[in-house]
Amino acid sequence: MPTTVLSMDEIINALCLHMAERKAVRVEDVQVELSWEEDTGYSAEVWIQGRSQYLVESNITEAILRYMHSEYGIRAYREDLRLELDEEITAIVST
Q1: Where are the domains of the chain?
Q2: Gap between the Cα atoms of 33 and 31, Å rounded
Q3: How confident is the model over 47-93, as pLDDT tens digits?
Q4: Dihedral of alpha carbons 78, 30, 24, 53, sign
Q5: Which sign, positive or negative, has the C-alpha torsion 88, 39, 54, 74?
Q6: Distance CA 25, CA 43 (A)
Q7: Where are the beta strands (DSSP E) in the chain?
């Protein structure tokens, strides 16, 4: 089964595109910081127009799946995606 690996930068791009569309702002107006903590797992803090919002792993997954479809033309599903942490956070998508 072929896989696509998204770098941390691509995950951040996916979140920026996703949140810009949801909040009706320009992509350039969205800032994202990804993190992983043992007790909470993967999360992201998003800043839009001076306001901060936290996203949980399911929100990150949704953004990545939409990004895979819009940027790669790949329709993937939640069970096809896993996030990994090594030197940085990556997304592994089985297609």
Answers
A1: 3-94
A2: 7
A3: 999 999 999 999 999 999 999 999 999 999 999 999 999 999 999 99
A4: positive
A5: positive
A6: 21
A7: 3-6, 30-37, 41-48, 51-56, 81-85, 89-94
Given the structure tokens 């770098």, which residue do they identify?
7
Q: In this structure, which amino acid lies at residue 55?
A: L
Kind of pairing between the strands at 51-56 and 30-37: unpaired
Q: What CA–CA distance (Å, rounded) separates 30 from 52?
A: 10
All residues at 6 or more sequence positions from 57 whose CB lies less than 8 Å from its CB, including other chains: 41, 42, 43, 83
Single pTM value for the model: 0.94
Q: Which two tokens stand for residue 84?
A: 């990994």
The span from the first CA to the last CA of the chain, in angstroms, equals 6
Question: CB within 8 A of 33, min separation 6: which ones?
Answer: 44, 45
